[in-house]
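One-letter codes give the sequence; backbone shape is given numerically. An example follows:

. . .
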Amino acid sequence: MNDIHAAKPPIETPILTDGQVFALWIFAGFALALFATWLVFKYLSRPTNELPASLPEEPQPDPYDVAMKALTGARKLLDEASWKPFYLSATELVKTYLSHKYRMNVRGRTTRELLGSSKLPERTRSRLHVLVSEMDAAKFANRNLEEGPAYRMFDAVRTFLEEEK
């Protein structure tokens, strides 16, 4: 058991030469540059939500024209003797017209809140007061649910829109 042997020589591990390490760094740098270029290309070619500046803005329809078309539709309700739906429709078209003309939110507002708005000129407010008080009486108290007053209201709404134009 006194068998003493000489130590084995060290095992050679593959080590890169200086030229191979330099080539590896060049390859890694080239790969990194290629990846960065791809990222920049993807970033610049991404879709955007913006419209091109060259497209003209679509013109908005005139609030008066829209209201007059709606009033023509409300006239059909009169011809069918649907008095209450006519008054509801007329109120909504007046509110919508005023919201577009004076750029104000009228959805969910009562006519009293609308009359109290500081965005409406005093002249408009006073004419609107007379108009909506009759419409509200018809809608909520079932007054003037007859042919004569309903057609007069149609004319009053048309006159209001023409004077506001």
Remarks:
- Residues 10 and 124 are 103 Å apart (CA to CA).
